[in-house]
Amino acid sequence: MNWLNDNVVLLTLIAAAAIIILTVGVVGKYMKQMQNDKSGGELAKENWDGIGEYKNPLPIGWALSFLGTIVWGLWYVLAGYPLNSYSQIGEYNEEVKEHSTRFESKFSNPDKATLMGMGEGVFLVQCAPCHGVIGDGINGKAANLTKWGTEEAVVATILNGAKGSNYPMGEMPAGLLDAASAKAVAAFMMQEISSVKKTKNAALVEEGRALWATCSACHGEDGKGMDGSAANISNYGDAKFVVNVLGMGKKGAIGSMPKFNDGRLTNVQKLAVGTYVNSLAK
Amino acid sequence: MFHWLERNPFFFAVGVFLVIAYAGVVTILPDFMESARPVVGKKPYTVLELAGRQTYIKDSCNACHSQLIRPFKSETDRYGMYSLSGEYAYDRPFLWGSKRTGPDLMRVGNYRTSDWHEYHMMAPTSVVPGSIMPAYKHMFSNTADIETAYAEAYTVKTVFNVPYDKPDMPKLGTLDESKKEVMAQAALIVADMKSQEVKDAFKKGEIKEIVAIIAYLNSLK
Fold first, then answer.
1. I need a surface site. Which of B10, B14, B121, B160 has the fewest CB within 10 A?
2. Domain coverage including residue A269
3. Which uninterrupted H or E stretch holds A251?
């Protein structure tokens, strides 16, 4: 009889016995009442097919629980619901607040590897639908980010012009310089102005410096864009350049890029996207 | 005290109805009226957007795409701010959808652009590898039904007092005036598109469904 040593089994057996005893007792009591008791008291006026109703007072327990319900109802309407009610938006706000706090403390000083991982994740969700999973712009449907940030891309921009960022200086026209001069000025710009600080054509830097006036007329001597009049190209090749584009959006020759300034991305996430996009350039 | 009610089943039923109706009126109506009011800055759809909306309904976009962002961090991270009742004030019928086979489109206008929609409708997998969405090539050849869209706008303006022709609200006017507005709005979208077929048709004064639905999707913000 091992199973009798189990507490749960014992408890179940005791409960079953109790239920049987109580049932027998209660049924017996009412059986007796039905056999022996005579009804009495004042009858109410209404009766249904000969079945009447006595004007008995409410049983005390019944009356107390009824009053209790009324009191609870008043408390719930006046204080319980207004002060403690659940709100989906409230829970959402708390969830977001908790997450933001955790996010900020965890990523207050992200290292390069963290930014790259985060950047890839955000890129795949927010950027890949247009720029492609590998960032190649899907056959010219969007900017090819594997080229962006390179010297060749600067040459291409000088030859083809640029538009769509709504700078006060307006569009950058195509063909400001011929191919050879463009190559030279790109070498100078990459070496001296941009964040990359190196060029593949070191020999052309001095030639490019002489031609820099063509660019500095709008972008400024230091390439910083003269306080927002034109694009700041001094951080070309840096995550900050990408962060700037994310904030402004662009309506360029290829198509339109939406702004990412509606709070969907935090500043750290934007920086992460910038870092990841920079790494795409081969 | 209430024995006379028990003798009169009809009045008893009336009494029960009154108690329950009162509870409904005080708990449901005030919140309902407050939240059904258009949120500040919400504008009714222009006629071109309405034509696009009818295309959206006709092609059952709502069978796979919802337009309702729930207040969960995972949703607002991906789709933007959660939805409010007042944002649907001019949606007749609302297009909440009940299943997300594709992503939510409540605020798609914030993160997709005309040229992307054009590629995507023509061949979804060309921009989203592995997408199971069917291509909607017929939108490039079917002409949008601007007259019906105008009729819808005119009806809701007349019957439901939707604020067309009010300051800072979309213009409606007569059918001819409205067609000019539609052409002006469509011109901006066609300019952003690449399809020669759509551009040629527009020069002849025809607006293809793709133009209308892009106008509608861009208006979802």
1. B10
2. 112-143+237-282
3. strand A250-251
